[in-house]
Specification:
Mean pLDDT: 94
CATH class of the largest domain: Alpha Beta
Low-confidence stretches: none
CATH architecture of the largest domain: 3-Layer(aba) Sandwich
Number of domains: 2
Number of helices: 14
Distance between the termini: 55 Å
Strand order of the largest sheet: 1-7-6-5-4-2-3
Order of helices and strands: HHEHEHEHEHEHEEHHHEHEHEEHEH
CATH topology of the largest domain: Aspartate Aminotransferase, domain 2
Largest sheet: 7 strands, mixed
Structural class: alpha/beta
Oligomer: single chain
Shape: globular
Length: 387
């Protein structure tokens, strides 16, 4: 693809115009889909691509990878077949016996993987309260800890992690800081600028934004042996995205800013409406002044607090708080009771029942992913469901 060397650098323009790429053959502003799985070998000097096989590299990945890399300010971004494929590739780049520090509250599927496959891989895992820098410092083992994995805002409690503080702890211990920034998105946060070494996204969520693509990404701050292992792991394990998925992801990213900013405005309006509601015991959203991480979020998240929030439902009548929460989720009509987040439609889910008995999620909690519907309609729908 050809692009203007003087192309503007503002992130909104980078995404809206897809880096300004133009197909040199047709002059199309939307890149063609390359379905090829194999490529003519070309070992001529100066040819940096040297494509061989699409499991290792495909022209269909490039636009999405380079767009995200520009937004994150990274050295390189690589695309995977799912967020889990991306996250686990990072852990599998470690050696058996390596020690890792992870949050007690994190994406439940990765937490389950760490305690099953990760433990069998030989990783030593310590869980901490990620909002407590002293607890993180105490958990780190200098010379043994190879990675600190953080998620902010944390799913589904929406705690805020001091990334600059954790980055300093990681550097002092000789460890890497990796950040799951799926819910913050590069619209509101760039972890590499705060000292992180690696950023992961479940691109299925906000980056794509239309509930029709399964993908994940890793972005590194610099090239080193660890990053080479991540790249090799993607090709060796076959954890790559499909050609159509990569094209759809790039398409979805072109509306990233308008979608995420709109969702954040609605989420804040919904959180403010329901804070102190008689049918709720708590509203969890970092945009609220009452949130314990609000001041940190204001410093660390630029321009907004994201489209995700959670509510904790009170018991009522003969219903326990857990039963009342599940009944509320069943009664919504505009919100859709479904898994996932970050798309144009608003979703609600009772996380405790989804995650199972080992979940740290309170049983009375409903996770809300705000979409692009009218915020007033979403508020009215929750009100009738709670009534």
């Amino acid at each position: 693809m050809a692009s203007d060397p003087q192309f503007p650098k503002s992130p909104q323009t980078v995404t809206a115009q897809g880096l300004g790429w133009v197909d040199p053959a047709s002059r199309a502003v939307v890149p063609p889909i390359s379905m090829a799985t194999t490529f003519i070998r070309d070992w001529e000097p100066g040819n940096q691509k040297k494509r061989v096989y699409s499991r290792a590299d495909s022209p269909s990945f490039e636009q999405a990878e380079e767009m995200l890399n520009a937004l994150e300010g990274g050295y390189q971004t690589i695309l995977f077949g799912s967020g889990m494929a991306a996250a686990t590739a990072a852990f599998q780049a470690l050696d058996p016996g390596d020690h890792v520090v992870v949050p007690k509250v994190m994406y439940w599927a990765l937490r389950a993987w760490l305690h099953s496959f990760g433990a069998r891989w030989g990783l030593q895992i310590t869980e901490v309260d990620a909002t407590d820098l002293d607890a993180i410092q105490a958990a780190v083992r200098p010379g043994e800890t190879q990675m600190i994995w953080m998620e902010t805002p944390s799913n589904p409690m929406w705690d805020i992690v001091d990334l600059a503080g954790v980055a300093e702890i990681a550097r002092s211990a000789g460890a890497r800081l990796a950040v799951d920034s799926t819910c913050a998105t590069p619209v509101f946060s760039q972890p590499l600028s705060l000292g992180a070494d690696l950023v992961m996204h479940s691109a299925t969520k906000y980056l794509n934004g239309h509930s029709d693509v399964l993908a994940g990404t890793l972005t590194c701050a610099q090239e080193d042996e660890f990053w080479s292992r991540c790249v090799t792991n993607r090709a060796g394990s076959g954890g790559v995205a499909g050609t159509m998925e990569a094209w759809l992801l790039a398409r979805g990213m072109r509306t990233l800013f308008v979608r995420v900013e709109r969702a954040a405005v609605s989420a804040l309006k919904i959180a403010r409406h329901f804070e102190g509601h008689e049918k709720l015991t708590q509203v969890l959203y970092p945009g609220l002044d009452s949130h314990p991480g609000h001041e940190l979020a204001k410093r660390q998240m630029k321009g907004g607090f994201g489209g995700m929030l959670s509510i904790r439902v009170s018991s009522r009548g003969d219903l326990s708080a857990e039963q009342a929460a599940m009944e509320t989720a069943r009664r919504v009509t505009v919100w859709k009771e479904a898994t996932s987040l970050g798309s144009v439609e608003s979703l609600v889910e009772h996380r405790g029942s989804v995650e199972g008995p080992t979940s740290p999620c309170p049983p009375d909690l409903l996770r809300l992913s705000t979409g692009l519907e009218s915020a007033d309609d979403l508020i009215a729908d929750l009100e009738q469901a709670l009534a």
